[in-house]
Amino acid sequence: MAKRAVLRSFGRHWLKPLTFWLLALPGLWLGWQWAMLLNGQPHALGFNPIETTHRFLGDTALRILLISLAVTPFRDITRWLPVMKVRRRIGLAAFWYALLHVAAYLGLDLLIAANMSVAGMFAGLWEDVAKRIYITLGMAALVGLIPLAVTSFNAMVRWLGARRWQQLHWAIYPVAILAVLHHGFMEKGNQPMPWIHGGILALLLGYRLVRSARNRSRPSPAAS
Amino acid sequence: MFFYRKPKPWQGREADVTPRALYINRRQIMAAGGAVAVTGLVGCGGSETEASTSAASTASSTAAARQPAPPSGGLQYAGTGYSVPDPLTPIDAVTGYNNFYEFGVDKSDPARHAHEMSVDPWSIEVDGHAGRTGRFALEDVVDFSALEERIYRLRCVEAWSMVIPWIGVPLAGVLQQFEPTADARYVAFETYLDRREMRGTRFPVLDWPYVEGLRMDEAMNELAFLAVGLYGDVLPNQNGAPVRLVVPWKYGYKSIKSITRISFVSQQPETAWNKAAPNEYGFYSNVNPNRAHPRWSQQTERVIGGNLFNRRETEMFNGYSEQVAHLYAGMDLIENH
User: Fold this and answer.
1) What pLDDT band is residue B73 in, cutting at 50, 70 and 90?
2) What is the ipTM of this complex?
3) At what angle do helices A49-78 and A172-186 cross, to 10 degrees?
């Protein structure tokens, strides 16, 4: 009984702020490491800090996206409903890290390669998106996230209506597939990490397929 | 961008701190250079006034021909004129930022796991179109009394670069001692493979073992080098111990590590990366800023250990056109990438 009260209190008062800070932690860590680097202090960014930054932000965005997709299965299995209150902010964090990932690519790669010319930077972006398949896929994933991020506020949910909001947000499934493909096509050779990300995504999407098949065969109304 | 800064104090700070090994190494080069009276060591003199004077004072005695014993496993070697004007890449970057997928795909994996590979004793299988074939001990392949140092650029296909002081012997002499026949038009190399010692090979990142190859005239070029050391010491395992190829005008993956087989063949041999992605990695793999990798541009490169906010213009043949351009006269280097 006491355990349940603790859990309820945690869900009500602590879950949202705790989630917020956990989601902010990778970004804060990265910012701290760059501050150390720029001040000539020991840092954890390795011998190629820009490459480390790209990989860190990309991995973080993709992994947070996978976590956001794990929220519903987690609720179904544990029947702990409060976790649904943080699903949206987890998804939104994935968007912010993806945006930072692209900003770092624009600022630390393309802008420098173009000798600090902003026009050159966008020319480089266009060339990359048009010519390089993994960047095409990654950019498509980011573009797909934009409408979801824009409609992540309560007012937008109300304005769209729960049903239409949910239908719009099904776009997260193709976006996640694009993001994993972006990672896979970026790596040289046949590396294990894209397969691990892809495997986890397959489990999360497979779970939904099985669940919706079951719900259809059973007449009882199902939750999201 | 808000995090962009013009060159600022921190930038110089990195260069001020000369790694101990580098400092010791420079003295060795100076001593060797003075004694053997080889041509100037561009890029190594610099501001090392103190080091060069101390070297000069000892260079007159014959003892100076022998280097002061480095801390561990040090090598005796002569200096050469092979150098570049750019600063050396710090030794911790050279030995801590490696692509050696047999030990994992992260750049820090080789430094973490390569010690699991046993490199002593080491032998090399020589086969194919040659007069002398069979299994040879490393000491019978590389003459450790004739080592020399060469400071070469290394340009990775991933668009980053280093400047590394290698210790070793020219490849041509090594190959000639096996008396290759007229049918030996190419030479193929193979990397050691042991699934227990090389944890990265438990996943099929590439079709193991790693294989590479050169056309015979490329292999006989004066720049082609067989390295057994760097920065005055024996090669750390993560850099391809105990013996590796160094072909500085080609992308880094051509410089195959931990060589366990040399084959003299008549047909162009398969190469590991070409098998994995033929449109991305050709047989020749000459550094060429005009031929973009399908997934990124090759026009510029990030200098490891250099200014983060500045990229270096990549040069044709990595700056070694004078020595190697004639090898490819009349060839379409976009087609034959």
Assistant:
1) low
2) 0.88
3) 140
B158 vs A contacts (CB less than 8 Å): 188
Which of B1, B13, B305 is nearest residue A107 as measured by Cβ atoms? B1
Using a CB-CB cut-off of 8 Å, the residues of chain B touching A193 are 105
When pLDDT is averaged across residues B160-181 and rounded to a whole number, the result is 98
Percentage above 90 pLDDT, chain B? 76
For residue A72, the Cα-to-chain-centroid distance in whole angstroms is: 15
Token reading at A216: 């259809």
Nearest 5°: the CA angle B243, B79, B229 is 20
CA–CA separation, B201 vs A100, rounded Å? 34
CATH fold of B9-15+77-328: Sulfite Oxidase; Chain A, domain 2 (3.90.420)
Please report, for chain B, the start and end positions of each structural domain, with discontinuous segments joined by +: 9-15+77-328
pLDDT higher than threshold 80 for residue B273: yes
pLDDT of residue B6: 44
Q: 């060591």: which residue's tokens?
A: B41
Q: Provide the shortest C-alpha distance from residue A57 to chain B (in Å).
A: 16
Tokens of B169: 């012997």
Cβ separation B97–A46 shorter than 8 A: yes
Top residue of A47, A181, A186 to mutate, by most chain B CBs within 10 Å, is A47
